[in-house]
Amino acid sequence: MTIRHKRKVMSVVLLALLTTGYLSWSYETSEATVAFLDVGQGDSIFVSLPGGVQILIDGGPDRSVVQKISSYMPFSDRTIELVILTHPHADHVRGLTEILTVYNVERVMLTGVRHDSNTYQRFLEAVVEEGSTVYLVRQGDYVRIGGMPLLEVLAPQDDVAGTNVSDANQSSIVARLSLGGLSFLLTGDADGEAERMLLQERLVDDIDVLKVVHQGSRKGSSEAFLAASLPEVSVISVGENSYGHPHDETLKRLETLGSRILRTDEQGDVVWRFKMKN
């Protein structure tokens, strides 16, 4: 692991955290997996890399993620190398607290935004108890594997560590994952204003797979955003809910684009597997 730059800040639990430019692993020929997990009304994405490196992005609304990832990890492997929390809302963070009690989590990546909820506080306390190395990220940070960029952070644009925001969705980590010759755009819940920023900064281009923002919220996946990203496949992580997700308008925009829609509430886990060479 390489740290490009670092600084100290105070988190909401008054701990000194490191910020990172990038993380780096090497690998040998093996298989890789990207799985959008069926965890109900929330997000969780599991990435398994050659050499036994695992990345978990968000944890969904409950402990079901623990059982889910056990299907993709050897029973003897009790370590997750990197956990990423896109933003502190319960449908993304609650399952990660459970993960920290079951697995050894070496590194945690988050924005460090302030958010007053008991669920988020319990997660931060679990990270402290675990002793994970914590990385605060913003646009321009990235993770490498085999010397090649694996995951590039596109948002948030600004450093939001320790700050209060009016809408935590807009401070979500948005990242482009490149693996097995495919590009995945992982959006967290960054709809509306955050989506417009990505377009204005010309950070959205042609991708293969889109993780549809915010369970298919009406506020996200605008015509302009879809015209810029042109996803061949659109994955909606969603469960039974009272919000009307995914919204009919969002589904219509995706259908008009000709993107293939895969929903975790209908298909279950949505999985890609790859062979990779060093």
Write the layout of secondary structure elements.
Blueprint: E1 8-10, E2 16-19, E3 22-25, E4 30-36, E5 45-49, E6 53-57, H1 64-70, E7 79-84, H2 90-102, E8 104-110, H3 118-130, E9 133-136, E10 142-145, E11 148-155, E12 174-179, E13 182-186, H4 193-200, E14 209-211, H5 223-229, E15 233-236, H6 248-257, E16 260-263, H7 264-267, E17 270-276
Parallel strand pairs: 2-9, 3-10, 6-7, 7-8, 8-9, 13-14, 14-15, 15-16
Antiparallel strand pairs: 1-2, 4-5, 4-17, 5-6, 10-11, 11-12, 12-13
Report on the structure:
Residues 1-20 have low confidence and may be disordered. It is globular and about 45 Å long. The protein is of the alpha/beta class. It starts with 7 loop residues before the first strand and ends with a strand. The protein is 22% helix and 31% strand. The chain has one domain: Ribonuclease Z/Hydroxyacylglutathione hydrolase-like (Metallo-beta-lactamase, Chain A, 4-Layer Sandwich). It has helices spanning 64-70, 90-102, 118-130, 193-200, 223-229, 248-257, 264-267; strands at residues 8-10, 16-19, 22-25, 30-36, 45-49, 53-57, 79-84, 104-110, 133-136, 142-145, 148-155, 174-179, 182-186, 209-211, 233-236, 260-263, 270-276. Strand 4 (30-36) and strand 5 form a beta hairpin. A nine-stranded mixed sheet has the order 1-2-9-8-7-6-5-4-17, covered by helices on one side. An eight-stranded mixed sheet has the order 3-10-11-12-13-14-15-16. The chain contains seven helices and 17 strands.
